[in-house]
Amino acid sequence: MIQIHNLQFAYQAEGFRLRVDELAVKQGEQVAIVGPSGCGKTTLLHLMAGITLPNSGQILSNQTELTALSDAARRNFRIANIGLVLQDFALIDYLNVIDNILLPYRINRSLKLDASVIKTAEQLATDLGIDRFLNQKPATLSQGERQRVAVCRALITSPTLILADEPTANLDPVTSSWVLDVLQKYIDEQQATLIVVSHDQDVIARLNRKVDVSAFSERLEPAGQGGAIE
Amino acid sequence: MRDSLYLAWHYVCHHRFTTLSLICSITLIAYLPAALEVIVNNAEEHFRARASSTPLLVGAKGSQLELVLSCLYFDGVYDDTLSMKYFQQIEEQKLGLSIPIHAKFKTDEFTVVGTTSDYAIHQNLQLAQGSHANMMGECVVGSHVAKELKLHIGSKLPVSSSPAFLLTSPKLRLKVVGILFQTETPDDNAILVDLKTTWIMEGLGHGHVKSAPHGSANAANYTDITKENVNSFHFHGDESDFPITSILVVPSSQKNETLLLGQYFSADQPAQIVRPQEVMDSLLEKVFMVRSYIVAIIAVVSMVTLLTISLVIVLSIRLRQAELSMMKKIGCSRFTIAMNLGCQILIILSASVVGVVCLTLVTDLYGRELIRLLIL
Predict the structure, then answer these.
(1) pLDDT tens track for B69-99
(2) Could B326 and A137 be called an inter-chain contact, meaning their C-beta atoms sit closer than 8 Å?
């Protein structure tokens, strides 16, 4: 599903360097990316998503070489194939729940919003127990409910790869476990791949595999310019 | 574009107070110069129309502007008078239409205009109710006078008169016999009477009227001219010496106009002849000069306001960094983000344009009324 060869990436201004000679994540795998703060976990996730480009090396996602794609093609690939769950949920305060879930269809023309997509969104909301909030704004929801909306938004395009950055960091243990249940159920049903950045040992323990990013990164003396960022 | 508009619409609806503030600010910035233009154009048209309908105005020597304003627009009082012999001379020469005007007296801020029946024909005044004044002591009032003083046909209107008259006779009460249609001209604020009525107000004529019974406040203080007593009113002296404030003249030809202008050219001549349009042009030139200063001030204020609005927009974009960053991470292009923001600005600008157009139309629609209330 994900293959990384000879990847090198640096934030030269911050003296940070990430080097991954080989890393492969198979389809259906559930991987925890771990490591101390500032070691490059989120950076690696962004590289896998094609949000950030490496200085050198190859990243293949579902047999597509991300580094060879144009900006537009990479965005279109990402929105159609990758579901992103962010730590701070990043819901839009001026849209109601259903519009937040459908957001990917309103910001990229490669996706077409039609009645079947809306039906899927409603079904996802029902599955995640937030169907009664569809017309409410995020501000009226609890933290757990907001994260469920964020999960729905990540799953609405039926992605084959879920990248989650600290998805349970702001949640209580019960809600945290519930969100992970939902993600794992999706992965099992769709034979998708789950990669989670987390510090939470309970979350890490529930995943198949652990990748420690501190083995790939190093901090140097800060110098000149930053690395290549999209 | 549809999705960008959808997102932008929800954004502006969610932040409705900020949006409304921006719309109001932009609307006002654009509306002020537009309104100024409309009002000044209306006023200009209004003033010029009145002035151009009367090619020449004869009056006692003095300020030309005061003469035109008091005798044509009934604004202020022109105390210097001419004798009727000037009117009679113009009449005898048969150089065109001439109408005597006596506009010295005011009651409740409305001018009592003594004139002849030719005035109503010249100004194209139409009666909404009643008839024209056929007798001394009768009056026809403009629509605004009738509305303000709550007058109707048959109402009695007490009028101020000269101090000399006050010493010798009770005040005169005019009988309202006609109410004019609204003309949006100074005639709306005029009380039209026969010239002789103003001479009675001057104390140049009087009637032998029995005193009213004691205890009747109205009758004790005012004199009514009625069908029964009108014949007892008479004037002392030669009518050609009686005062008028001006003569409206519409020469029948260019040659006659030149002849008339030549007659008042002499420096020792106590009368003057003016072209009201030239006098008003000169006044309006000054108004336009003031307008250009106001426009300059508005332009500076607008620039400052626009800079403030730009700052508000830039700050709001900075506050939305988390949202915009999330959109980019998911797969939104910079162009789409710019289009979303552009649509928000488009909605605000469109609403402002609609606001400006509506306000300007309303100003244009009620501009004349506004000018009448503010100026006339």
Answers:
(1) 888 888 877 778 888 998 998 888 888 899 9
(2) no
CA separation for the pair B181, B188 (Å, rounded): 8
ipTM over 0.90: no
A25 alpha carbon, distance to own chain's centre: 14
Q: CB-based burial of residue B34 (10 Å sphere; 0-12 exposed, 13-18 middle, 19+ buried)?
A: middle
Distance from CA of B25 to the nearest CA of A (A): 23
The verdict on A199 touching B (C-beta cutoff 8 Å) is no
* Residue A61: inside a domain: yes
Confidence (pLDDT) at B145: 92
For residue A57, pLDDT over 70 is answered with: yes
What number is the average pLDDT over the span B132-145? Answer: 89
Average pLDDT, chain B: 84
Compute CA distances A113 → A48, A93, A157, B2, B3, whole Å.
26, 21, 10, 12, 10
Residue A225 in domain: no
Which DSSP helix (H) or strand (E) runs through B173?
A: strand B171-180
- CATH of residue A77: 3.40.50.300
Which residues are CB-neighbours of A144 under 8 A, at least 6 positions away?
A171, A172, A175, A178, A179
